[in-house]
Amino acid sequence: MPGEFALIDRIRARAARRDDVVRGIGDDAAVLAVPDGHELVVTCDTLVAGVHFPDGTAPSDVGYKALAVNLSDLAAMAAAPAWCTLALTLPDGDEAWLDAFLDGFLELADEHGVSLVGGDTTRGPLAMTVTAHGLVPAGQALLRSGARVGEDIWVTGTLGDAAGGLAQWRQRGPASAKLRYRLDRPTPRVQAGLALRGLASAAVDLSDGLAADLGHVLAASGVGARLDLGRLPCSRTLADHFDENRRWELQLTGGDDYELCFTAPAARALEIEQALAALELPATVVGQVEAEPGLRLLTPEGGAWTPPATGYQHFEGGHA
Fold first, then answer.
1. Cα-based distances in Å from 314 to 44, 48, 49, 254, 317
2. Of 72, 152, 163, 309, which has the fewest CB atoms closer than 10 Å, so is most exposed?
3. Residues annotated in the binding site, as ranges?
4. CA of 75: how far to CAs of 46, 60, 143, 224, in Å?
5. What integer pLDDT is reported at residue 123 of this predicted model?
6. Taking 50 as the threshold, does the pLDDT of residue 315 lie above it?
7. Binding region for Mg(2+)
């Protein structure tokens, strides 16, 4: 069984390096060059086996998702990804598992020009912590606190697919490969986040469910909102597998979508549609920001609807 430093060498041999990496893997810390006129955006997420991904998930998918959830945070801040670190906790030094993990992790890193510049390895229950760093022109980061009364609430893509895939896995019954793929390999909307600079007023990525994550924006902005459930974008696959009420539950509280939810003045709607259409990414207005605190959910008939849960929180259950 290889030791810790052999595993680190194995990772270093595969990690690409950007020109702005002054010192990467191999020293006590990385040295990175931040360009003039930019601010550094930093995010960190931990994934734990059985909590953030089902036991038995392919290691390449685990690697892909470990980076994707961090790039999604950068996307919500309108930051361009640049560097990351990786701390791996492994039950053993399985080189084949590590190589497959790196296949997925570095596939996504290469796609977005991200350099792996450091980290750590240790023995223990399977988990990984990624810290991702992005760059944004000074003063242009999207924050949760910018939503204003009267603005539209948008979401990218479709909602509920990943939660549907997880629900099917838990039931151990017939399952959709498309829904499971959305759970295992979420798409971080990095280009969308960059396109929304100067157009959106606030944003958040949807990791814990639309109701909970939009709630963070409302709290930070000191506003409330109305969501029209009939507008929630739904894939044909999700509609084929779940009835309407169950779909709303998955879309609002299921989590793991990693789409963007953002607010913007109605006058910017055409610009937003054009910017995202250029990326071939659908986006939908699902509600409006209101003055009254709280989140109101309306059915297509105009009635109030209350979800059975509010979204994922650690120490109150588990994703997987």
1. 16, 12, 14, 13, 6
2. 309
3. 28, 43, 45, 52, 73, 119-120, 144, 205, 207-208, 256, 312
4. 18, 22, 11, 24
5. 93
6. no
7. 28, 43, 45, 73, 120, 205, 208
